[in-house]
């Protein structure tokens, strides 16, 4: 069962909501293997990596109830739709069950809504049965642009909207999570990612409406000592 604010009574209850993440540019295969071992031990929802590590992660997690997740068009989203489509299809073919894509932020801010929707929809088709989360990079958007990005994601068939890459100069806030949840209602999931490094912050995101948390400090979050 997925945790909800009413079922979270201790840090470990958050484990099933966490995408355990290693996206730093200097990550090594050994570090990625360690993250997989942590995810299995703590029962995180998934391990999220750059595409190059998808085959390694899929092998490491085989036989365990932890999903393989990869990022697409990361971290800027400013790549051609055809490139995102190829990247997503390749990652899914190599074992990714979830894809987190970055929108073309510049197109959104320029009012090119049809192009943003088409970009997301094309990646969704490439995902086949894999779940698609759309990173809207909230720190670069006005509140109205956030609402538009959420609506476009929903219209394009996305499964989740996600706050941040963690590389855009800002991360998740409870206010942004609440805004996104208000737009998508129960139709889509909301993922809070970027700057979520402790139990208190992670819990605040869930209370604001997040149904998934992206974090690299995941072990510290779920093993925190609280009064």
Terminal residue distance: 25 Å
Largest sheet: 8 strands, parallel, barrel
Q: Please bin the fraction of helical residues.
A: 40-55%
CATH homologous superfamily heading: Aldolase class I
Spans of at least 5 consecutive residues with low confidence = none
Instruction: List the total number of helices.
Output: 9
Categorize the overall geometry: globular
Mean pLDDT: 96
> How large is the share of residues in beta strands?
15-25%
Q: What's the total number of strands?
A: 8
Query: What is the number of independent domains?
Result: 1
The topology string of helices and strands comes to EHEHEHEHHEHEHEHEH
Radius of gyration: 16 Å
CATH architecture type: Alpha-Beta Barrel
Structural class: alpha/beta
CATH class: Alpha Beta
CATH topology: TIM Barrel
Tell me the strand order in the biggest sheet: 1-2-3-4-5-6-7-8
How does this model look, in words?
The chain is of the alpha/beta class and 227 residues long. The protein is built from nine helices and eight strands. It has one domain: TIM Barrel, CATH 3.20.20. Helices cover 41% and strands 16% of the residues. The radius of gyration is 16 Å and the shape is globular. It starts with 17 loop residues before the first strand and ends in a 5-residue tail after the last helix. 48% of the residues are buried.
């Amino acid at each position: 069962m997925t945790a909800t604010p009413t079922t979270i009574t201790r840090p470990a209850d958050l484990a099933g909501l966490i995408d355990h993440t290693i996206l730093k540019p200097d990550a090594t295969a050994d570090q990625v293997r360690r993250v997989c071992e942590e995810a299995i031990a703590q029962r995180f929802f998934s391990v999220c990596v750059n595409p190059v590590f998808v085959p390694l992660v899929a092998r490491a997690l085989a036989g365990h109830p932890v999903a393989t997740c990869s990022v697409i068009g990361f971290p800027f989203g400013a790549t051609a739709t055809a490139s995102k489509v190829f990247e997503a299809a390749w990652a899914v073919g190599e074992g990714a069950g979830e894809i987190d894509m970055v929108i073309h932020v510049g197109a959104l801010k320029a009012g090119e809504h049809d192009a943003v929707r088409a970009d997301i929809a094309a990646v969704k088709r490439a995902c086949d049965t894999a779940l698609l989360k759309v990173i809207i990079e909230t720190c670069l958007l006005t509140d109205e642009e956030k609402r538009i990005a959420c609506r476009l994601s929903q219209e394009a068939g996305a499964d989740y909207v996600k706050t941040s890459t963690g590389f855009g100069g800002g991360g998740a806030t409870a206010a942004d999570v609440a805004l996104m949840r208000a737009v998508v209602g129960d139709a889509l999931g909301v993922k809070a990612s970027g700057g979520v490094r402790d139990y208190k912050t992670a819990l605040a995101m869930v209370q604001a409406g997040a149904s998934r948390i992206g974090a690299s400090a995941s072990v510290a979050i779920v093993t925190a000592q609280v009064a």
